[in-house]
Task: structure prediction
Amino acid sequence: MDADVIGIVRGALPRLSAAEARVAERVLADPTLVVDLAITDLARLCRTSLSTVARFAQTLGFSGYRELRVAFAGAVARAQAEQERFGFVDAVIDLGDPVEAVAAKLAASEIGAIEQTVSALDFAVLDRVALALSGARQVHLFGQGASSLTAQDMQLKLARIGCVAVHSPDPHIAITGAALLGPRDVALAVSHEGETAETVRAAEVARAVGALTVALTNAPGSPLTAVSDIVLPTRAKESPLRMAAMSSRIAQLAVLDLLFVRVVQHRGDAVTEPLRTTRRAVRGG
Result:
């Protein structure tokens, strides 16, 4: 089961019932409650029924409360380890933090995002995507805003090794390109929250014409995952200030870097000449 149970609970909040949301908010405020309390005690504390707590666990994708407790125990242990490692429990940046604290919290947040994302990946699924990318007729990458920058980074990497890779930040161009894909193509859509309408639409169109459609997102159960064949999860927690995409983009880049390395490995010697040619062209000789 996914390592970042706190992120799963937070991401599930919009689709929970009122009673389940009450449980979610209580355990997010104090994750040790799930570890310390039996299901009946937690239900009583949240002013709800035992069946609601059990349903809450199942809604999150766990078999039951026992598996949920195990996941929360791991999350609490990791939080304690992070406190020992970085000197604080929560890496949330406050407006009044001095520069030293900002630097430490950014480091903790971004390191945590990479570690939790990698631990959540199903490597067999990721390798299926890498194989599809390495043999695709063309690859289209979709993303808007900060996710557009992530998509463009992957497009540039793939182009350097001779893959036909396309990305446009213009949503109309992206969607029309998606409509011309086919079963030999791959569409990779990037969206942290999985709700960006233009990205969801491009993925939907690509899937409808037979392209293998892959979502890279932090939000299981989001509109983007509903129109994708494969989901590659990230596990990044952004600051409430949300001044810019930071941890989310770091997590996305980590997954795409891993994908790219696997594509290079799968293509083998075929990448050598394109890399040499593009390097020579950039150097001007």
